[in-house]
Amino acid sequence: MDLFEKLRQNRGPLGQHAKDAHGYFTFPKLEGEISSKMQFRGKEVLTWSINNYLGLSNLPEVRESDAIASKKWGLGYPMGSRMMSGNTNIHELLENNLSDFMKKEDTILLNFGYQGIMSAIDALVDRKDVIVYDSECHACIIDGVRLHQGKRFVYPHNNIENLEKQLVRAQKIINETQGAILVITEGVFGMSGDLGDLKSIVALKKKFNFRILVDDAHGVGTLGDTGAGTSELLNCQDDIDIYFGTFAKSFASIGAFISSTEDVVEYLRYNTRSQIFAKSLPSPIVEGAIKRLDIIRRETSQKDKLWKIANALQSGLKSAGFNLGNTQSVVTPVYLSGGVGEATNLTFDLRENYNIFCSIVTYPVVPKDVILLRLIPTAVHTLDEVEYTIKSFSEIKDKLANGEYISEEIANV
Asked: Is 109 within the bounds of a domain?
């Protein structure tokens, strides 16, 4: 069969809906100033889908810093990869500042979170090693695990008893291969909002010889007394061997980092292919991250504002009878029952008649007959906006229960 013909016949589980969904349910365009209200298809909507957790993209001092750095450096500098010609003092300064913040010996910057952690996993293990990972890990981790040429075992989400069983299996293998074990989990699981059971996992080090990699993309900046993330909140920061954080959430920018021991970070600098063979982060992005980190470390006011909104939103939705699962973070999932047709009609109603924009998640990302509306509160939302959202959600829940959204077709957009 011709390759192009094969692709035409099988668009994939999501791509099969592209003609009906593109530009509205998928690949929508939110335009204007990043804030709690933005423009969608020519009108203002209350937006709960922007990962601007701390509202840093709205702070004048951040915008001024970005503008000055862009004027100073342009987006081209430095040219080349870090290893060849793209290293600078400010890249190293940011790494040093992050190491101090995370209380780790060293840090490596990553151009992008997704390809960075995926490539780091590939670099950390070889065919003699075994990876054990949580079943609900993000796609970037799953893709990194897929690159692994050795054994990998998955345990049900936060099921520590099963994790121990997988570690027993892994230990038998490495006894023969003389390899090592890497356990991978997340600090905050970005879809459900619950926390990885880090304390229970690191406690297993007393019985098994393994290292743990934690993806804390949604935890850094939002959790812990200083904002150093989930492991700080759970008081096990020293026990996390490899810590991954991103600039795409709380930092409201782009890029990521890994903090660990000096030996591990040096190894990653010379063996992480996606960084060795890719252009260095532009200097304005790096200076912007330095400014954002300084604000996060200097004051807690933005984090306090975020949690004021998150607590009001989550407590209000729970009081109104909504199922938020087991979220322990600012990520606010709202679980409803219904098919894809109902989900799209409900979302269409929210966006067109209530002027509320939030992310919709349906099968195959979640089980069949589950509708997940994922809300991301930020420091720039208001309590009035929270109250309006809860009222609107209560109305759409009643409509859903009354069968007003029943349809086998995707809403006509």
From this structure: yes
The radius of gyration of the chain from alpha carbons, rounded to an integer in Å, stands at: 22
247 touches 114 (CB < 8 A):
no
Q: Evaluate if residue 412 carries a pLDDT over 70.
A: no
Residues 214 and 363 in one domain: no
Q: With respect to residue 258, please indicate whether it lies within any of the assigned structural domains.
A: yes
Q: Which amino acid is at 297?
A: R
Work out the mean pLDDT of the chain and round it to a whole number.
95
Domain annotation covers residue 406: no
Q: Calculate mean pLDDT across residues 215-226.
A: 97
Q: What CATH number does residue 193 fall under? A: 3.40.640.10
pTM over 0.90: yes
The tokens describing 185, both together, are: 């989990």
Q: Which domain holds residue 269?
A: 60-298
Tell me 195's DSSP state. B
Q: Is 16 in a helix, a strand, or coil?
A: helix
Stated as kind and residue range, the H or E segment containing 123 is helix 113-124
Q: Is 246:98 a contact under the CB 8 Å cutoff?
A: no
Q: Identify the bridge partners of residue 182 per DSSP, sorted by sequence position.
A: 131, 211
Q: For residues 210 and 326, state if they share a domain.
A: no
For residue 227, which of 101, 381, 312 has the smallest C-alpha distance?
101
The domain tally of the chain equals 2
Angle, helices 60-73 vs 283-298, to 10°: value is 150
**CA-CA distances (angstroms) from residue 22 to 11, 28, 29?**
13, 7, 10
- Judge contact between 257 and 244, C-beta under 8 A: yes
The rounded distance, in Å, linking the Cα atoms of 353 and 193 is 28
